[in-house]
Amino acid sequence: xxxxxxxxxxxxxxxxxxxxxxxxxxxxxxxxxxxxxxxxxxxxxxxxxxxxxxxxxxxxxxxxxxxxxxxxxxxxxxxxxxxxxxxxxxxxxxxxxxxxxxxxxxxxxxxxxxxxxxxxxxxxxxxxxxxxxxxxxxx
Length: 139
What we know:
The structure is a single chain. 79% of the residues lie in helices and 0% in strands. The chain is globular and about 50 Å long. It has five helices and no strands. By secondary structure, it is mainly alpha-helical.
């Protein structure tokens, strides 16, 4: 059940991120509350793993503040919520693989001169691609 919830969250946020370059924080928070409640009744990992997963999102939010918004605050909030569902190791895998896909895409855009170095791209679709890759490997 957790898999489908995370897939739905990332899909919903990907569409919003691609259209507006913003995330609906209220939707993310509702998924987060649902994740906490779900863990109360059907935990899939330890509380320490959940806290570790959430720490990845908190670190991303700190980076957002330090870089004055170069990294989206919403991306950090989203990673906190995915950390609730996935735990530390899987959330780190989600984040790192998403960064890898985003870097490849950005490199391609730079080589093809479609974007310049400081232009923004939506990050959440790469998290979705990362999660789909994680699901495909576990089947």
